[in-house]
Amino acid sequence: MASGTLEIVLLNARCLKNKNFLDEPVRRKPVWNEKFTFNAEYPGGEHHKYKLIIQIIDKNKLSCVDHFIAQTTIYVKDLVSMGVETGKAHLRPTKYRVVLPNKSYAGEVSVAVAFNLDV
Predict the structure, then answer these.
(1) What distance in Å separates the CA atoms of residue 6 and residue 37, rounded to the nearest whole number?
(2) What is the CA radius of gyration of the chain?
(3) Which of 27, 30, 50, 55 sits at 20 to 30 Å (Cα–Cα) from 13?
(4) For residue 112, what is the enclosing H or E element?
């Protein structure tokens, strides 16, 4: 079993639909440029799906209630597999469609993913 580091860079989003406190639609274009790192193992078991689920949440400072806006799923099995073979692998920033709470698509999120094998 090989292990390494999975690096996720959450860049930005476009055309996200949300509602304000008056229940009026609002379009948002957040920019994060945040990097997250996780330990990863390959193979991780026969039922392991190697997927990354990113949920976008709007933190409401007035009501202290967080609101789910959308989510996307990125499958990283091929990336991790290639990284195990070559020592490292990456996906350049890519736009992924996001799914709203009503299961429709609206908007996109830009994410870069990399895997580095531990030596």
Answers:
(1) 6
(2) 17
(3) 50
(4) strand 105-117
